[in-house]
Amino acid sequence: MQGVLTLGQFIIEKQNDFPYAKGELSRLLRDIGIASKIVNREVNKAGLMDILGDAGTINIQGECQKKLDVFANEQFISALKSGGECCIVASEENDEFVYIDGEVSKNAKYIVAIDPLDGSSNIDVNVAVGTIFSIYRRKSVDGKATLADVLQNGTEQVAAGYVIYGSSTMLVYTTGKGVNGFTLDPSIGEFCLSHPKMKIPEDGTIYSINEGNYVHFPEGVKKYLKYCQVEDTDTLRPYTSRYIGSMVADIHRNMIKGGIFIYPTTSSAPNGKLRLVYECNPMAFIIEQAGGRATDGYSRILEKDVTSLHQRSAIFIGSENMVLKVESLMSEYSPLLYEEKIDTKLERLGVVGGID
Ligand SMILES: O=P(O)(O)OC[C@H]1O[C@](O)(COP(=O)(O)O)[C@@H](O)[C@@H]1O
Ligand SMILES: [Mg+2]
Ligand SMILES: [Mg+2]
After folding, report:
1. Do 191 and 212 reside in the same domain of the chain?
2. Is 54 known to sit in a ligand binding site?
3. Beta strand segments in 74-178, E
4. Ligand 1 atom at shortest distance from the alpha carbon of 212
5. Residue 355 placed within a domain
6. 33: CA distance to ligand 3 center in Å?
7. What is the pTM for the complete model shown?
8. What is the C-alpha to C-alpha distance for residues 197 and 291, in angstroms, rounded to an integer?
9. Would 122 be classed as within a structural domain?
10. Spacing, Cα 338 to ligand 3 middle (Å)
11. Do 230 and 113 sit in the same domain of this protein?
12. Is residue 121 part of an annotated ligand binding site?
């Protein structure tokens, strides 16, 4: 097979970009690649296996865990355990972070935050789902790593990526030097470089949001939807609405075609729905590395203070000019109130709950 570059070969090649690299991050990315293949195998034949439906358990988000959520979580944790390059896993499916025990792992310098199966509501209906991961270097040097090593701001990520289990399976990742995409070739069981140096178009004509929540949206978002839906051929409006309901799949599409994905605050989810540590921060790192933009409507996602493992955030992410447009409408029609600003500040100062 002429000119195929596998993920493993690419990772080794790129290791030279990091003069002091000892290969730990490379091996960690390899381990994530292996677990993704195992999850892919189950996703592909889910209808034939007893792996559809609910697992009968509830996670800390109050969501029914799907059997595939639990399976994927186990696969990633065990692959990271046997690889030995990760000391802590922070997962959507575990209330607390998980220490990866074992002689080697406990001194390992990397922390992995993961959404093992993204788009769970689409599992049983054969629609694209994904996995999202984020990698940090621990800050503490001695002894066991701690929660503080996990709760680092998104700007501290050393790598991030996602896997999309769709019509084909792809792994897309960044180590802060651009974004590259690899397609799984089942005939050789390898992820092969198919999308080098991915760039998201500055502009797009696709908006992606669950409009079913319209009545609960901030005024700024309502104004933006109106903006997207008016007739104006010069600006290629009305835009097209596309919403898969799997964050990975919606953002992957926009990465390739241009577009914006929005999950704002709603009256039922005043802090947004999606989780900062293992959904918003990794996707923001990837999209920024591809030339796009990611904010919470007001400030850069990657600079948001991370105060808890399952913290939620609003997210506006995608083509730069589209995100800038909605931000301008948010600051005009849904300006952050003084209390909200104070609240955030107090939260940062550790006064939980801000002003009562
Ligand atoms: O059904 P809603 O409220 O539109 O939410 C869909 C969003 O929720 C998610 O499914 C949440 O992720 P999980 O499936 O990992 O819990 C996102 O993938 C998706 O963008
Ligand atoms: Mg998710
Ligand atoms: Mg999930």
Report:
1. no
2. no
3. 86-91, 98-99, 110-118, 129-137, 159-165, 169-174
4. 4
5. no
6. 18
7. 0.93
8. 11
9. yes
10. 34
11. no
12. yes
